[in-house]
Amino acid sequence: MNASEQEFKISSKGLQVGMYVSRLDRPWLATRYALEGRLIRSETDAHEIGKLCAYVYIDASRGISPDPRYILIDPPAKSAREQARREIRALRKTTWTDTQTFAEEIPQAEKAHHEIRVTIDEVMQDLQRGRNLQLDRLREGVDAMIESITRNPTAFSWLKEIKRKDGYAYHHALACSVWAASFGRHLGLNRDELSELALAGLLFDVGKSRVDSQIMVSHSPYDDVQHQTMRMHVQHSLDILNEASGVQVSQRIIDAVATHHERHDGSGYPHGLKNGSIPMFGRILGLIDSYDAMTNIRPHMGSRSPHQAVMHLYDARDQLFQAELVEQFIQTSGIYPTGSLVELTDGRVGVVTAVHSLKRLRPTVMLLLDADKRPLSEFASLDLGALPDEEGGRAALAIRSGLPQGAYGIDASQLFLD
Is the domain of 264 the same as that of 296? Predict the structure, then answer.
């Protein structure tokens, strides 16, 4: 929507009967208002919008003009790049450090992982039976997961990969929630913010439970009608959150769910918002959603290796996704994240079990196949970062390439059974 020449940004304290609100400080979709744009017809209207928004935009060509005392003037803009960097730095409220080793955290992470899997199962079954979303139960599972990830993020990330459950939608929801918590930890979000971001990651696609199941399991590319039907899952998700039982859904979660398919360049949906208009949690979840979708086998599409997915995100920086967020995410995941399959320069194949913060291209790998791609009788752990270099500083043994999920018939979930 093009801004009118008579559009003013004002404090919501200055709302009056007769004003026409053309824009809010959040997407209209994330509110109870069905249509974009609203004439203030009563003091009640003004009060309700004032409670919801810190500021709004008033179109004086369609209603009365605002009192000059309440007009907000944005400060002179710094360079867009510097503003974006400041925005990312402002997220850092906490510096998290590992308080448990990977081995120490695995038993606790396994317990939390089991609990949240069971909870997701029960909640999703309730939704399929037409019952309301039990948000308080999901929050309990998310809180246990957050406790584990703040102690050591690698353990839970490892478990989400090796304990995949049948069904793309199920695993995608849990994986995005784990990625959200891990990425938020890296960005320095505080405990409450981590919980909200992870919960939003678990819920942003919950509306797909109301999409025709034939579309969800289709192995063919979607036609235009199916695309439009699938896009309705955003509104379905918001409806489900609005009907949720238990604790109240925060506005930040609603905003994130409403905007996770919007894109930096305005090419997303449902409203074609551009980066500055997309809430930070919506931007984060949009990036995570795309990354995890690319690295998973979907009903209508194959998977990419994590390395290929990271390169795709990098190529899409400042187009689909904010460049600064892409760069930070790559620091979180590494080129070869925990749980990904890799082939070494000597031909052996393994799964990454740990990523070193200072040597991200030399993770610890559990070897699964020999150089002839035959299963090894025993799995051996190999720390590439601890191996000596050849003359000239070149690694004697390194990763040749990342592999997509299912390469060489490997199913990590069958290798490490409960």
Answer: yes
Based on the domain organization, do 15 and 123 belong to the same domain? no
- Do 329 and 353 lie in one domain? The reply is no
- 283 class by beta-carbon count within 10 Å (0-12 exposed, 13-18 middle, 19+ buried): buried
Total-model pTM: 0.76
Which CATH number characterizes residue 324's domain?
1.10.3210.10
Per-residue pLDDT of the chain (418 residues; tens, 9 = 90+): 344 567 889 999 999 999 999 999 877 766 767 567 889 999 998 999 999 899 999 998 888 988 888 888 766 556 777 888 888 999 999 999 999 988 899 899 999 999 998 898 888 888 888 888 888 889 999 999 999 999 999 889 888 876 665 566 778 889 999 999 999 999 999 999 999 999 999 999 999 888 887 887 777 788 889 889 999 999 999 999 988 876 678 999 999 999 999 999 999 999 999 988 999 999 999 999 999 999 887 666 667 888 888 889 988 988 999 999 998 998 888 778 888 899 999 999 999 988 876 677 788 999 999 999 999 988 889 999 888 877 655 677 889 888 887 889 887 666 654 4
For residues 318 and 366, state if they share a domain. no
Return the residue matching tokens 């909640």: 123
Task: Count the residues in the chain.
Answer: 418
> What DSSP assignment string belongs to 331-361?
HHH-SS-TT-EEEETTS-EEEEEE--SS-TT
